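Reopening this ticket.

The earlier resolution said the output was attached, but the attachment link was broken on my side. Pasting everything inline this time so it's all in one place.
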Amino acid sequence: MAMELPNGRRLIGCAAALLVLGGMSPGVSRAQLHQPTFECANTGALRVTCRGSFVDGTSAAGIVVRVLDKHDRVVYVGNVDTLGRVTFRKPDAEFHVVFDAGQGNVLTILGSEMT
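Inline output:
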């Protein structure tokens, strides 16, 4: 489908997509650009703050974050907020945090690896 522009030129529907995809480096797929990133850090007062996002800049708001103890029992469930973060009380014992972005994109961070 084409659209007439004021100067008499025509814009073809897929032209914008070609411009976006044309800017990608060879060998970089759209799936690779939508990879999740996730990091957690101790933020003092027995709190942990985690930040989640996607490489392509897509918001991770709403993504489920689970905190599990060493026996894989859920001790906290929360969602990434609109700023890309989730904060929870640091468990007293060994724990790990799971960021589940779906479609096989599950990232896990051990409590012992946090700064």
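Reporter confirms the inline version is readable. Confidence is low (pLDDT under 50) at residues 8-24. The first strand starts at residue 2 and ends at 4.
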